[in-house]
Amino acid sequence: MNEIDLIKEFQHIEDNFNRAVVTNDIAEIKKCITSDWVLVDSQGGIIPQERFFEVLKQGLLSHSTMKKRVLRVKIYDNIALVTGRGQNTGTWQGEPMEADEWITDVYKKDGDEWLCVLTHLTPVKK
């Protein structure tokens, strides 16, 4: 598969992941990730999915918009590194929030589908 087709394929996968996160529905998000998925960000460090889901359940975090433009995809056997730029809005602890970030998602092929293993966020320098 050429680079343009890879980017299109993973843009679709990322769009589905983003839609799941915006639902704030843990069951929907779990369809896109592995059971050991983690989030890595500059403020919280390595955040296990259990902690991420607990924050969602408590209503401390919710997303209202989320988009990512896939810029780079590299595949190594059954692992894909997907890097792009994303923006999201929502609330954190009842206060409005918005983010503009460089995002790298690590995917693992499971049968015929790609599931996210790790999401790494880096704020875009203003």
Structural features, described:
With 126 residues, this protein is α+β, with helices and mostly antiparallel strands. It has a single domain (3-123), classed as Nuclear Transport Factor 2, Chain: A (Roll), CATH 3.10.450.50. Helices cover 28% and strands 56% of the residues. The protein contains three helices and six strands, in the order ααββαββββ. It has helices at 3-23, 26-30, 49-57; strands at 33-41, 45-48, 61-76, 79-92, 95-110, 113-123. It has a six-stranded mixed beta sheet, with helices on one face. Strand 5 (95-110) and strand 6 form a beta hairpin. The model has no long low-confidence stretch (mean pLDDT 96). InterPro entries: DUF4440, NTF2-like_dom_sf. Residues 12-115 form the DUF4440 domain.
Q: What is the 3D shape?
A: globular
Q: What are the secondary-structure elements, in order, as H or E?
A: HHEEHEEEE
Q: Name the CATH architecture.
A: Roll
- Class inferred from helices and paired strands: alpha+beta
Topology:
Elements: H1 3-23, H2 26-30, E1 33-41, E2 45-48, H3 49-57, E3 61-76, E4 79-92, E5 95-110, E6 113-123
Parallel strand pairs: 1-6
Antiparallel strand pairs: 1-2, 3-4, 4-5, 5-6
Name some characteristics of this structure.
single chain; about 130 residues; alpha+beta; Nuclear Transport Factor 2, Chain: A; six-stranded mixed β-sheet; 3 helices; about 55% strand; globular
